[in-house]
């Protein structure tokens, strides 16, 4: 069964790397996937051992209720940006900023860099 979304070359490449690419899951494979998940096997190792793409593994785990994707990061608002810059200029630590905004320290640092570099889109008066 060929995919309508991939060129023949792309399909052949994926089929060469993942033997079970674009094939239905068998009950035995589903049971093996459940066992692997219970044993704490990484999704990358599951993919390799089952001959399926990492995305196929993730989607099957999700459909079985064995994986819940992280929610998308909440967007920064203009008020968040202003408060972040103010607290940073007042000397708040990254740990404090992380706790205050409910984001990782890496997210705080990345946002400060983007604000300072001026690479964010200009805001309109309505924002």
Briefly, what is this?
The protein has 127 residues and is mainly α.
Features of the shown structure:
about 130 residues; mainly alpha; 7 helices; about 0% strand
Helix and strand arrangement:
Blueprint: H1 8-17, H2 27-38, H3 43-50, H4 54-63, H5 78-89, H6 94-101, H7 105-117
Largest sheet: none
Domain count: the total is 2
Order of helix and strand elements from N to C terminus? HHHHHHH
Helix content: 55-70%
Broad structural category: mainly alpha
Instruction: Count the E strands.
Output: 0
Low-pLDDT stretches are none
Overall 3D geometry? elongated
Distance between the termini: 49 Å
Round the Cα radius of gyration to an integer and report it.
22 Å
The total count of helices amounts to: 7
In round numbers, the mean pLDDT is 86
Strand content: under 5%
- Assembly level: single chain
Describe it.
This protein is mainly alpha-helical and 127 residues long. The protein folds into 2 domains: 8-63, no CATH class; 70-127. The chain is built from 7 helices and no strands. It has helices spanning 8-17, 27-38, 43-50, 54-63, 78-89, 94-101, 105-117. The longest helix is centred in the C-terminal third of the chain and has 13 residues, at 105-117. The radius of gyration is 22 Å and the shape is elongated. The chain starts with 7 loop residues before the first helix and ends in a 10-residue tail after the last helix. 8% of the residues are buried. The model has no long low-confidence stretch (mean pLDDT 86).
């Amino acid at each position: 069964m060929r995919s309508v979304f991939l060129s023949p070359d792309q399909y052949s490449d994926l089929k060469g790397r993942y033997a079970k690419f674009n094939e239905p899951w068998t009950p035995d494979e589903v049971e093996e996937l459940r066992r692997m998940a219970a044993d704490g096997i990484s999704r990358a190792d599951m993919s390799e051992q089952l001959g399926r793409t990492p995305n196929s593994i993730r989607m099957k785990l999700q459909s079985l209720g064995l994986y819940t994707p992280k929610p998308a990061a909440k967007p920064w608002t203009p008020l968040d940006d202003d408060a972040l810059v103010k607290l940073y200029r007042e000397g708040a630590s990254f740990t404090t900023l992380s706790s205050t905004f409910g984001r990782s320290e890496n997210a705080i640092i990345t946002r400060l860099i983007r604000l300072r570099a001026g690479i964010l889109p200009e805001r309109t008066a309505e924002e």
